[in-house]
Amino acid sequence: MGGELATDKHVLYILSVEKRKDDFESVAMEHLRMNGAYWGLTALDLMGKLDTVDVDEVVSWVLSCQHESGGFGGNVGHDPHLLYTLSAVQVLALFHKLDVIDVDKVTNYIVSLQNEDGSFSGDIWGEVDTRFSYIAICCLSILRRLDKINVEKAVKYIISCKNMDGGFGCTPGGESHAGQIFCCVGALAITGSLDLVDKDLLGWWLCERQVKSGGLNGRPEKLPDVCYSWWVLSSLIMIDRVHWISKEKLVKFILDCQDTENGGISDRPDDAVDVFHTYFGVAGLSLLEYPGLKPIDPAYALPVDVVNQIFFSK
Amino acid sequence: MHGRPRKPLKQEDTAALSAKAEHLRSLQSHFLANHHNRVYTKEALDVNAKLVESNPEWQTCWNYRKLAVQHFLSAASDSDSDVKSILDQELRVVENALRKNYKSYGAWHHRKWVLSKGHSSIDNELRLLDAFQKQDPRNFHAWNYRRFVTALMKRSDEDELKYTEEVIGANFSNYSAWHNRSILLSNLLQRKAEGYFPKENVLEEEYELVHNALFTDPDDQSGWFYHLWLIDQTVKTDAPLLVSSWPSHGSTINLQRNKCLFGSGSSVLNCTLSNIGKFPVILYFSQAVEGINSSTVTVKSDVLNVDVVWKPLSTNNSNTSQVWVTYLNIGNMELQLSKTYPLEISLGHSQGIVSSSGYHFGHPTQIAFKLCILTAHREPAEGEGEKMTSWDDHHFRAVEHFQESESILTTDQLTSENDHNQPTSNWSVETIVKEIAEFRDLLSESDCKLGKLTLARLLSALDSLSSKHAKKMAHADEVLQLYDDLMLLDPIHSLYYKDKRSLTLLHQITSTRESLLPYCHYYEGATKTIADYVCVRLQNLSLSRIGCAENLLWVQMLDLSHNELQSIEGLEAMQLLSCLNLSHNKFGSFTALGPLRFLQSLKVLNISNNEIGSHSIDTRRYLCSSPLSHTEEFAWDRFEILAGSFNATKFWEAFLIFDSLNLTELDIKGNAVDDENFKLFLVKVLPTLKWLDGGELS
Ligand SMILES: [Zn+2]
């Protein structure tokens, strides 16, 4: 409990999860292994331990999940979906290996999923959600192909999901939710459209997600959870309102959710740890400028050095 | 992944779990084989049905079912009952999966997909939803699905509004229901549905409904945002208005023979405007607008016969802005001494100026002002303009008398267009006054945070409603006190209240001539021959945020030092600004200085003793135009010519900011970033620089 960040333990925990493929938990999470790879590897990079991973092994596995359509599946043999396509691209970006994919092919897959109203479907089966708008925009931007979609319409659709509290929902009329807000604010940030966000109103809603324990919840009157350290914090940072919460108390809450014995971070103190919350805890601490962690970019959800390298080198 | 206790597994649990894992694994591989081989037998579908129950988030499973349905539908006869039985089977599978996990995106979407085929009855759906919504009244999947189903059924907004009332009646602590109510009510108000127009009566009932929630438990957030939304509905005016301008209506702008300007609140500083021979006109609106151009805004003048080009002062891609500016080229005008030249700017006479929410600027407005060419001018002596700017106290002299200030500040400057504003509706004022009484009542019983915050907001709203007539912030002192109390009462959000407090304070200071006068000083540093050097000194006020730029458009010299600022959002409106002191604040990055890029006249900048370079996370990264947000290309060519030997990933922020400025003085010492290497870089990027960190450059 508490104390300092048990970096070494968390690194070992993340590496061990990869090895326990036959645990029930691992089997039940087979379908989002691509997301898991992104969470685990990004957390390792933030902790300065990405070099413990066999790059070629990861890259060839990622490539084996790609389909003829250009999209990526969550695992080998699974159907492609935007959710996994972004994770795959992010993982390759972490290793500076974006050149191993056919960028136009991935781009075409994403472009094909934009709808007439500017929204995006997650795959060919037509589920529409502003999460997919973020994924499409973030992914294309990393690939330097944002000009291939209708950005104006994409932005307009996101704005049509804006609510009275300044937040955003999945589809027009949907309730505001911190995860959804991250997606919408992130997409608006990447497309240079943050002027369309009511920063003071949304900032107040977001800062009121901090509860007495210091943790953040995702919606009013809900329990705090480590994963919201990322969704809420990154949104607050993108609109420059992060000073409206107490950083010290949030740091303490995240550290209290560590399993200091076996490594890993959980949703709340004394719950079972998983890679998802380990990543969000570490990423949250990075946003809080916790010493010893690499800074992470609030919009692209990749280390700042990785993002800067993409945009500021010839 | 959520809510599982952290405890070591017992031996027998481990065994049971690994058996479970093995079973699941074999189902998965069985299913994938079927999927890849397009096997849709009953047995194969049963395997899949088991999986969607244990793995309802596995999209591939649902995709397989959709393929199977398509396969069966293509083989089925056209008879409706065949089709229906195929689809009904799917609805049953979804229902089972939802009973296991009603938070599954995949399951809800599969149900929508089946229903969209149009063969199933939707009557059942609301009943099914009721069960899920009772089990978890906040489940947003269920609420989303409810909006989908009611739209499909063409159930009226009025009926759904009643439903939210029932849900709220059962338990007011249901944010989801309040949210849905705001959506429905917005629709009804917007289309002026019968019984929902005018909005006055409707909103009155809403206030009552939300009071019940707020006053029962002021700590429960469910009704907070709904109440704030109601206040906004009460006070907001939809149509954009012109809030202020520079020059202001009725003012006279005195130009020196060499075309620098002073008088009417502007002071002669470094003759910056003469250098470019251009004269700014600033339009400040109540909200962001688009469509400002030479056909929506006309400039009438005997001497000026060119098309003017208006530019939005914003860093976004949408071409909307609250502030628009044009530069009139007076450099090539034939102006005679001692003569005044009238100019008239008219806007709103034709359609085309539109707010981002689609409302038209509806109040034809004129700004008439005069340009006057003065003879009394002395050419600066050799080297006189070459003195470094000093911000020390002894260089400033208070402006003591109103008489004296007449030439500095005219009431018009503080806002123009009073007569053009809509008369404030009595209803708005009465409603706010009533709310104020309600919340004073609440506070007399308990010292709650919501009560104080809402009271502060209501009092500010009342002041801004009244200020359209009398420019006083009558309740500012009380509001400041409330924010002070809140900072102690709710320390984790104290900087939120501090920001609000800063805005209130600046509002109070800039609201009238009398209130601003104590902050206006003559600057006697550069040259003693001209008495009109006025500096607005707002240092040491604990400001964490700036605002009210609309009242300060005329300012050429501004001191904001010794505050707690970390951003200068809004400062870009002050187009005449020439000297700016931001030292001893909390600026954490160069991107925080983004607004300065719009200030063509800026020559002197002091950002010493800030936190630039001390932070690993930059909170202004996406609010400053840059390649990251696709608002600007990185000027590689210029970067390489100017600073080729430096690392772009390290210096891009400084390059973006300073490359567009023409500073002669810059003080950046006391920031972590300021090392010798960085100074070398700055000197290359800023060729106009004469002084750096207080030292003269050779
Ligand atoms: Zn969580």
TrEMBL record, chain A:
Q: Which reaction does it catalyse?
A: geranylgeranyl diphosphate + L-cysteinyl-[protein] = S-geranylgeranyl-L-cysteinyl-[protein] + diphosphate
- Provide this UniProt record's keywords sorted from A to Z: Metal-binding, Prenyltransferase, Repeat, Transferase, Zinc
What is one Gene Ontology biological process annotated in the Swiss-Prot or TrEMBL record? root development
Asked if the Swiss-Prot or TrEMBL record annotates the protein with the keyword Repeat, the reply is yes
Top-level EC class: transferase
SUPFAM superfamilies for this protein: Terpenoid cyclases/Protein prenyltransferases (SSF48239)
Asked whether the keyword Heme is assigned, the reply is no
Cofactor stoichiometry and binding remark: Binds 1 zinc ion per subunit.
List required co-factors: Zn(2+)
Report the EC number(s), separated by commas if there are several: 2.5.1.60
The Prenyltransferase alpha-alpha toroid domain is annotated at 5-301
Signal sequence span is none
**One GO CC term, this protein:** Rab-protein geranylgeranyltransferase complex
**Tell me, what is one Gene Ontology molecular-function annotation carried by this entry?**
metal ion binding
What does the sequence similarity comment in the record state about its family? Belongs to the protein prenyltransferase subunit beta family.
Subunit relationships: Heterotrimer composed of the alpha subunit RGTA, the beta subunit RGTB and REP; within this trimer, RGTA and RGTB form the catalytic component, while REP mediates peptide substrate binding.
> What functional role does this protein have?
Catalyzes the transfer of a geranylgeranyl moiety from geranylgeranyl diphosphate to both cysteines of proteins with the C-terminal sequence -XXCC, -XCXC and -CCXX.
The protein, known as: Geranylgeranyl transferase type-2 subunit beta
Q: Which organism is it from?
A: Crotalaria pallida (Smooth rattlebox)
Automatic annotation (TrEMBL), chain B:
Q: Which residues form the signal peptide?
A: none
Which is a GO BP term held by this UniProt record? prenylation
- Highest taxon of the source? Eukaryota
Q: What is its EC number?
A: 2.5.1.60
Give the UniProt keywords, A-Z: Prenyltransferase, Repeat, Transferase
Q: Which GO terms describe its molecular function?
A: Rab geranylgeranyltransferase activity
What Pfam families does its record include? LRR_6 (PF13516), PPTA (PF01239)
Return the protein name.
Geranylgeranyl transferase type-2 subunit alpha
